[in-house]
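Customer escalation, tier 2.

The customer says the design service returned an amino acid string that "doesn't look like it belongs to this structure." They asked us to rerun it and document both sides in this ticket. The original structure tokens are below, unchanged.
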């Protein structure tokens, strides 16, 4: 045999086949919760801070505070709303202020805005340190991963558009089988497993739990009346 006919000859040793893949490292529990700032952290932190400030700017106009007449004794009013004191003979109730629509958004902003600003400040320090010591700061790879995830969002949108045409059963089987194939599991065994799993999902959510689906399905409308009613009821 010619040498060029054995492309893996250099990978075969006396002990058998030697893979070029890097062996998996042991994962520690501490590493799962270890926080690290990647190269795209600065841009993401900036966007999150701008979103938090956006909510803060429009808080008064969107929660009914704009043009609202506040009482003269603000302290007594807040104490009464919190259920700490009585006001004009009214029966006080602890926590009644939580039922007002502006309270929960304000609590969220009190936590979100300082956290976003502090996180951006720390991210800016790391970004400047990287630039100072000529470390890579390009965020192209990180953002490409976000864009790659949009592929599966498109699949789900296409799925919701196909359901009124082909029905929940056929659409779910097609999506489940395609996603299995797309993720690299392309053997006959995995295809059969994906079809069986998709069919089981339809049985659980549509046949047994009776989850509502669109009533006007084009494919079912082409079936005889009795079969159409059966498919609309269970599939």
């Amino acid at each position: 045999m010619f040498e060029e006919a054995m492309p893996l000859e250099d990978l075969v040793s006396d002990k058998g086949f030697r893979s070029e893949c890097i062996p998996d490292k042991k994962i520690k529990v501490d590493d799962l919760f270890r926080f690290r700032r990647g190269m795209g952290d600065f841009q993401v932190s900036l966007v999150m801070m701008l979103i938090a400030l956006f909510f803060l700017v429009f808080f008064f106009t969107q929660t009914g505070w704009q043009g609202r007449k506040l009482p003269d004794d603000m302290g007594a009013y807040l104490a009464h709303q919190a259920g700490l004191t009585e006001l004009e003979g009214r029966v006080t109730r602890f926590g009644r202020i939580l039922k007002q629509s502006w309270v929960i958004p304000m609590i969220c902003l009190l936590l979100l805005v300082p956290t976003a600003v502090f996180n951006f400040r720390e991210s800016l320090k790391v970004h400047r340190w990287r630039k100072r010591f000529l470390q890579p700061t390009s965020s192209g790879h990180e953002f490409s991963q976000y864009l790659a995830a949009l592929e599966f969002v498109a699949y789900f949108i296409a799925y919701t558009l196909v359901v009124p045409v082909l029905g929940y059963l056929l659409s779910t089987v097609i999506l489940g089988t395609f996603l299995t194939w797309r993720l690299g599991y392309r053997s006959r065994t995995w295809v059969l497993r994906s079809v069986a799993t998709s069919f089981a999902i339809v049985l659980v959510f549509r046949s047994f739990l009776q989850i509502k689906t669109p009533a006007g399905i084009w494919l079912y409308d082409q079936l005889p009346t009795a079969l159409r009613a059966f498919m609309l009821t269970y599939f």
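Tier 2 assessment: The sequence is consistent with the input. The mean pLDDT is 80. Residues 176 and 198 are 6 Å apart (CA to CA). Sent an explanation to the customer and offered a walkthrough call.
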